[in-house]
């Protein structure tokens, strides 16, 4: 089966600095892929390229759309790319303030994509927003509060609801749990695992936290200095790392 | 081939660029026509033109007629309608594009006007660009002909263009307005010029101008409904009462400037040409005659206009847009028609 998204030889440089060099990866529906690595290893740049927000200097990204056609991301026009980003893809950002409209109520945040698709019935939008807030465990009476009044964990859950409301097929997550305390992290991870399983989502999650990768992902790609140094099944890579850098990374984790 | 560095007069084929015939540009200098007015413009542009695309500004015999009695005398040597002809052509080009693409915001090189931003610099520039000698100008501010801004702009054009002005909607060919659309139905051949403070309907939803332009280009207007959604969730109904977003000709979403939503239905299928000028923001947009203008709404919360629970205290008519006027410092107030011309006409008819 052709993968939902496949990248070949993705390269991006910022002047003399290499952010990504020759990255290959595939992802299929229902699969969670974790990209791990230390800060500055090119994880976020890779994610931006996968999201179509950043054009790679070299390499190609192919996406299989809902009609089953495999298309190169670079060949899709800006209008369709934006429409794909609104319907087929989700992007959960590290900083919720970038992924949410902070001045707009939670209900409006969840409903925005629906209204963008042409939904013009207030009652339906409201009902859908309530349903999704319930699914991400946000109390119904908070629907009219802006995210500025939400805690960090709630903001991330609201971001997830806002992205999943149009039933996307691919969700990209950039360090969704960083900056949250461990109990809130655990709840969020439970939620992501449950929803991705229920909805058969393909998820690419960027994290520097190996525990997050182990809990969520099926496969893992380890990045260092813009290159993927090791890739494989999560348990395999974390329990029996082959690459020297992965061994270092795994051994650096503090045991609780 | 001649030496490119020649500084002789041959390098400048135009008498104007050579500086010939410019004596009469000096204010107060004797006009070659000896009639005391209009000579300046005629003299300056006679002979060969500096640019092959620029036709003469006025035929010689028009000059005297196009300038107001004050123009060319003393310190008041204005070109017709204050702006120079090049600027007016630039604005007209923007206007043509705006009319061709209804609701699209066309950038233009807004000029510094002799009035502060926010007082209608955009509307004044559009009016200046479209005025002709035979036009009759009406200016309203909040529907009233007698407020400071309306009176000043009317006098401005009476002085700089020497055109006739009126307060009667029916008599006017060009109507400049800040907030209201006159109650008297507009007709073909009339032009309504709006003064617009913020032309971008998405401004307070999406602060990045690069992003809002993309959204207009791709007709991504979901965000506009987010604003209306927020209104309903907070107030139980769409609480936006002015600058209520409209969709023009089934394509662009447009801010009708600070007009109350009461007037939105008048924009739809209007026989008059509607032009919008935003001076500070440097944007011009337009709604051509007989164009569909639809106010955005939800299926279960349809667009409605304001209604008033009392008649006008002066003319006694109901169903018109009313202004609240404080009459003393003891809490006294009255509600009167915002459109002074319509109100007066009704009172005259009653007598």
UniProtKB/TrEMBL annotation, chain A:
Residues 5-250 form the ABC transporter domain. It comes from the Bacteria. SMART domains: AAA. Keywords: ATP-binding, Nucleotide-binding. The keyword Nucleotide-binding applies. GO terms for molecular function: ATP binding. Belongs to the ABC transporter superfamily. This is Phosphonate transport system ATP-binding protein.
UniProtKB/TrEMBL annotation, chain B:
Residues 1-46 are annotated as: Disordered. GO terms for molecular function: alpha-D-ribose 1-methylphosphonate 5-phosphate C-P-lyase activity. Pfam families: PhnJ (PF06007). It comes from the Bacteria. Keywords: Lyase. Its EC number is 4.7.1.1. InterPro entries: PhnJ. This is Alpha-D-ribose 1-methylphosphonate 5-phosphate C-P lyase. The lineage of its organism: Bacteria, Pseudomonadati, Pseudomonadota, Alphaproteobacteria, Hyphomicrobiales.
């Amino acid at each position: 089966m052709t993968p939902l998204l496949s990248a070949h030889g993705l390269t991006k440089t910022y002047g003399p600095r290499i952010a990504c060099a020759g990255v290959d990866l595939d992802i299929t529906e229902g699969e969670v892929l974790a990209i791990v690595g230390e800060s500055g290893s090119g994880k976020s740049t890779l994610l931006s390229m996968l999201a179509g927000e950043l054009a790679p200097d070299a390499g190609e990204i192919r996406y299989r759309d809902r009609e089953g056609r495999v298309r190169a991301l670079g060949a899709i026009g800006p209008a369709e790319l934006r429409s794909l980003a609104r319907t087929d893809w989700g992007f959960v950002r590290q900083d919720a303030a970038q992924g949410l409209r902070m001045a707009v109520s939670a209900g409006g945040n969840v409903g925005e994509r629906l209204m963008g698709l042409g939904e013009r019935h207030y009652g339906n939008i409201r009902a859908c927003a309530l349903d999704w807030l319930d699914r991400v465990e946000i109390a119904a009476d908070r629907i009219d509060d802006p995210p500025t009044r939400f805690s960090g964990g709630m903001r991330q859950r609201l971001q997830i609801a806002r992205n999943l409301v149009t039933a996307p097929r691919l969700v990209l997550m950039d360090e969704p749990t960083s900056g949250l305390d461990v109990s809130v992290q655990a709840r969020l991870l439970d939620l992501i695992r449950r929803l991705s399983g229920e909805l058969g989502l393909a998820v690419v999650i960027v994290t520097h936290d190996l525990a997050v990768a182990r809990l969520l992902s099926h496969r893992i790609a380890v990045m260092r200095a813009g290159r993927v140094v090791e890739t494989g099944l999560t348990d395999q890579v974390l329990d029996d790392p082959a690459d020297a850098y992965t061994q270092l990374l795994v051994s650096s984790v503090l045991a609780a | 081939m001649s030496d490119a560095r020649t500084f002789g007069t041959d390098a400048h084929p135009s008498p104007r660029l050579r500086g010939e015939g410019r004596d009469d540009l000096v204010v107060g200098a004797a006009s070659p026509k000896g009639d005391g007015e209009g000579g300046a413009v005629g003299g300056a542009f006679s002979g060969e033109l500096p640019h092959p695309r620029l036709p003469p500004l006025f035929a010689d015999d028009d000059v005297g007629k196009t300038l107001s009695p004050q123009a060319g005398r003393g310190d008041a040597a204005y070109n017709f309608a204050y702006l120079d002809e090049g600027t007016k052509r630039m604005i007209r080009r923007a206007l043509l594009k705006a009319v061709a693409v209804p609701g699209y915001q066309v950038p233009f090189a807004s000029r510094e006007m002799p009035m502060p931003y926010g007082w209608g610099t955009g509307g004044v520039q559009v009016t200046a660009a479209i005025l002709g000698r035979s036009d009759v100008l009406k200016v309203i501010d909040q529907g009233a002909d007698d407020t400071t801004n309306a009176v000043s702009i009317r006098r401005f054009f009476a002085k700089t263009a020497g055109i006739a002005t009126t307060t009667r909607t029916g008599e006017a060919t060009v109507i400049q307005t800040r907030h209201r659309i006159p109650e008297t139905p507009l007709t073909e051949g009339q032009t309504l010029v709006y003064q617009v403070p913020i032309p971008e309907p998405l401004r307070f939803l999406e602060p990045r101008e690069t992003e809002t332009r993309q959204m207009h280009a791709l007709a991504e207007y979901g965000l506009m409904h987010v604003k209306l959604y927020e209104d309903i969730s907070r107030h139980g109904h769409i609480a936006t009462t002015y600058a209520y977003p409209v969709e023009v000709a089934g394509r662009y979403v447009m801010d009708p400037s600070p007009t109350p939503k009461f007037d939105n239905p008048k924009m739809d299928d209007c026989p008059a040409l509607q032009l919008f000028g935003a001076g500070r923001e440097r944007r011009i947009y337009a709604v051509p005659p007989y164009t569909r203008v639809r106010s955005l709404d939800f299926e279960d919360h349809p667009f409605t206009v304001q209604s008033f629970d009392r008649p006008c205290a002066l003319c006694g008519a109901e169903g018109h847009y009313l202004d609240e006027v404080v009459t003393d410092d003891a809490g006294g107030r009255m509600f009167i028609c915002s459109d002074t011309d319509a109100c007066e006409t009704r009172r005259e008819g009653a007598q």
